[in-house]
Every structure is written in structure tokens, then in C-alpha cells.
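Continuing the batch. This is chain 6 of the set; chains 1 through 5 are on the previous pages. Same settings as before, nothing changed between runs. Recording input and output for traceability.
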Amino acid sequence: MLFHKLIIYFGTAIIILAFFVAMYFRKVQKPMYFRWVYLYIIMGIFLSVNTIFFIRFENVYAKTALVLQQVFFLTQFLCGSFIFLYSDVPIIKRKNKIIIIAILIFLYSIGYVLYLIKLAPYRFFMILLSLSFIVYPTFYYKNILIKVYRIQLLKDSLFWIFTGFFFCGCLSLPTYFPIKFAFKSIQFDYNNMASGLLNISLLLVYLFVIKSFLCLKYQD
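Output for chain 6:
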């Protein structure tokens, strides 16, 4: 539990750092998708504060914390969707981007409804959220591999944003599967480990977002 708390507090500090870095570059000319990056960071701050309140006042705040967590995650999902929509991925037409986003929103909504009517566990629609953070970067990487256009990836803000999403999706996805049964015969706190891994995956996004803002120094 102590490890879980340390990650949350450390993660909150990283998100606040990301916010200050974002504010530092607020007057620099940026691609349109950065407006959604700003909102993503703000939602991250709300999410961290909500988690800290849950830790301190679990008995009276648990239900409220869960509802707010869903709202913040949903908003971040929409931010990621708009970043994908306004990103420069030439091999995908804007119409096709909208179709991809609409399908993911539909699946996410189905998962959430199933959770509300108690036909699916909470982790079901969180799995869909993690999948979306894998799907969007996959199209970006496919664009790099198929459509070879001249771009310095290490100085490309979009590359770092999508890489952060990709790592977050890949690391968080396994935590939502019931693999805890594999540890039935040994002393192992699966829930604590899974929560820690999930928070680390979310933390990585903000580290990559910070790097994406620093890349603005190299733009023409």
C-alpha cells in the first residue's frame, strides 16, 4: 500500500511539472492538437487529486471517487481521440479517423452501460480505454513505416505523445485481466501490484508529454 501511495504522490508531482512545462510553452506556435494535450494534463491533475482524496477518505468518498474517476478517464479518452483526429497522419483520411474514433466511443459506451447495469465488471470498459491508447499510436506508427516521409522522430512532438499513449495502453491492459488466480498458491498482493503498475503506466504518458513540449524548441 505504501508503494502505491508513493507512486500516486510522485505521479502527481510529475503531472504538475507537465502543467508548468505546458504553461511555459503556451505562447509558442503549436499544432492544433496541443489544445487537447493541455486539457489532458488538466484532467490528469483532477484525477490525481481525486485519487489522493480517495486514499485519505476512503470510507466516505469511495463512490464519489469512482464516478469522478470515470468522468476524468472518459475526458482523457476524448482528448486522445481529438489528438488523433487533428494529428498529421497522411495515410488516414479525416473521414476514416472519425470512423475509428466513433467505433471506439461506441465500444466504450457499451462497456460503460454494461458496467452500470452490472452485466460486466468495472475493468471491462477500462480494457476498452487501454485498447484505444494502443489503436491510435498503431496507426501513427503504420504511417511512419508505410509512408516514408522526411521527419526527425526524436524531435517530433506527435511521436512522443503517441509513444506515451502506446506504453500506457500496453502496460495498463494486463492489469485489468483476472490473472490474480495465477498467484492463488503464493502470498502475493495482486491488487496492490496491479494498481502500482497502472499508475506507473499513466505516469509515463506525462513524461512523454513533457518531452513533446520540449520538442517545440526544434520546430521551424
